[in-house]
Amino acid sequence: MTEPRPGDFALTKIRGITGRAISAGQYLIGDGAPVQHAMVYVGEGMIVQAMPGGAELIPLEVASEPVVWSTGHFDLSDQTRFNIAMEARSLVGTPYSFLDFVSLALERFHVRPRWVRDYVQSTGHLICSQLVDVAYRRAGVQLFDDGRIPGDVTPGDLWRLIK
């Protein structure tokens, strides 16, 4: 494993009962993956991650240990990497909402009413995988070209993208 570079994202496991609950939920909606969390490396040993108290900027050394990095999976210029890192930093403080999980589950079961999708998008709240997707998208990098709406991204989706 090479060292992460600014703009790379990592996927991690969440330990304990919270991790088991998230993992069970992922499998229930057909999105099973060996990871439950995502973060963006912004350089200087720091990451940005979405958390229930709001997105935070913390040292990588205190974050959950990465299972896999996106390093080497995307051909990103230094400027694009800088832009992703800056966009991730700009998301610090963004609220988190468990309703986003419900919306993603409804979408996976093909029963999500448009008003739920529109409401979730209008709140500006982000879960971890959505934060990664938003930072990349705002920097001009579209991670998914399968027709999904922006933000319909789970840690499992990111896992399948780089595995």
Question: What this model shows, in words?
Answer:
This protein is an alpha+beta fold. It has one domain (9-155): endopeptidase fold (from Nostoc punctiforme), CATH 3.90.1720. 40% of the residues lie in helices and 14% in strands. It contains 6 helices and 5 strands. It has helices spanning 16-28, 78-90, 99-108, 114-123, 128-138, 155-162; strands at 9-12, 37-43, 46-49, 56-59, 66-69. Strands 4-3-2-1-5 form a 5-stranded antiparallel sheet, with helices on one face. A hairpin with a 6-residue loop joins strand 3 (46-49) and strand 4. Helix 2 (78-90) crosses helix 5. The chain is globular and about 40 Å long. The relative contact order is 0.21. The model has no long low-confidence stretch (mean pLDDT 92).
Task: Compose a concise summary of this entry.
This protein has 163 residues and is of the alpha+beta class. It contains 6 helices and 5 strands. The chain has helices at residues 16-28, 78-90, 99-108, 114-123, 128-138, 155-162; strands spanning 9-12, 37-43, 46-49, 56-59, 66-69.
